[in-house]
Design goal:
Length: 272
Amino acid sequence: MIIGIDIGSTTTKAVLVEQGTVIQRIKTRAIDAVTSATGAFGKMVLENNIPMSEITRIAITGVGASKIKGSIFGIPTEKVDEFTAIGKGGMFQSGRDNIIITNIGTGTVIIEARKNEINHVGGSGVGGGTILGLSKKLLQSTTFSDIMDMAATGSLNQVDLLLEDIIGTDLSFLSREATAANFGKMLDSAKNEDIARAIINMVYQVIGMLSVFAARSKDSDCVLVTGSGSDNAIGKKTLEEIARMYQIHFEFPAGAEYTTAIGAGLSAVDAL
């Protein structure tokens, strides 16, 4: 058995891989990379009653992987490049060996994954960290649950400048409700709920358009969305609106936040 661990900046995900199949998935939070990695390993082993002797290898990836020196609990431990892990995990999740992957975490990474080649297409510093940072300053809120609760009843027309504000009609394939300028209106009557909705909308519009450009540059009409930001309900709606406008299909696989950990585990399998 192999355990793949993705040590993120806020959350660590781990998966148990046996004979190329993902058996279990868990996630933990901790203040440092070493605690995160060992905690995820321990939780996986204890909750699933796995004898330590059956774990043959540990594969780690993510921003915190560089903090791990040597092996974990004496088990051979290898570091997997994060882009490689995203690519391998994305191909596994999609069931295809040619896919564009947008991985949304604190920031955003876009990968082109093929059977024999994985390339970093681009990305952005815009992601979940942007939502938290702006919300802390503008809304005095620092938790995703609070931000999402506020955004659920927010209205973009109180904050964003829309096409209907400028020309009053649709423009080509853009509806009159399409955004002309994020935060370009900002009425005095705008509530925190409206601002929360506008923050999420702006972040996912940036991510969505970067994904469209990446897909088109690779002659693809499909993008696999992974990472912890893939299950943001409001963000999904924004991506789906972009998909309709630009004829790009966004796929949201089950367990998308574990994709990078899965890729790390599968990379270790390939290395055996």
